[in-house]
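To start, one record:
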Amino acid sequence: MIIHLTVSIPTYNGENRLPQVLERIQKQTGIENINWEILVVDNNSQDNTAKLIQEYQTNWQHSYPLRYVFEPEQGLAFARQRAIEEAKGELVAFLDDDNIPAFNWISEVYKFGQKYPQAGAYASQIHGAFEVEPPEHIKPIIFYLAINERGNQPLLYEPRKKGFPPGGGLVVRRNVWKKYVPTRLLFSGRKGKSLVSSEDIEALLHIYNAGWDIWYNPDMEIEHKIPSSRLEKNYMMGLMRSIGLPHYYLRMALIKPWQRPFLFLIYVLNDVRKLVTHLITYRKVLNDDVTASYEKERLIGILQSPFYLAHIKFLNVFN
């Protein structure tokens, strides 16, 4: 039997978050003609995630299977790659363990994949489900918290103008990923105290550069549960710096190799100009204007990004 869709849930210590995701998935509507499965990828959890899934499997009474695999190598990139290797579906839809899909999410995932065969990947509309109301100063940059609200019409991503979508709620064609995305990406995902991610964008770059479309589907809606700790200043400062650090690699990946030596100096000088301009413009209020401080961290991260890339490549050589 052909499996149309695998819903993959990578998780790390998700014992307390997974039940809400699984309960919502079990209440999906419009799925009568879809052959699908759920695949939980345990990314080296140290809690009772494995026991939790075993209990669900023991009492499972649905026609679609609930599967579990353990991925010992820490990092979301490794968990997603394991999902691609283990999945049986033609489409693989990723849900983070803090993503609560709408009741029709799976049916909309399947419909969009049928309607847009050239879509190598497509993203959900993601709303923030905040534990506390975000302060006003965060609202202009709230999309950095993996919020993806780009209107109510499908949108074709143009990476040089609109960037790429976040990985939560992302759907990929398994055969496209297996053909064009390396089994080991440069960026492995957040680990420990590091907030540097971009593994999703790196994978999407390979799919995009292979000639496949990347789409936004507003009918696939998700709520992203965001705890109050992610609105605190220390977290946001670290997040903004980490968003800047992969910038050089991602920017260079979108231009032809022969252009890179010529554009490198231009980009660096422009990055210096942006940071200096920002520091001059906000020099009197940087201590009080939290939004300006966050932007300063992002610009510093961008300026550091060529050296960060060299550091990552060096580490990968010796790992």
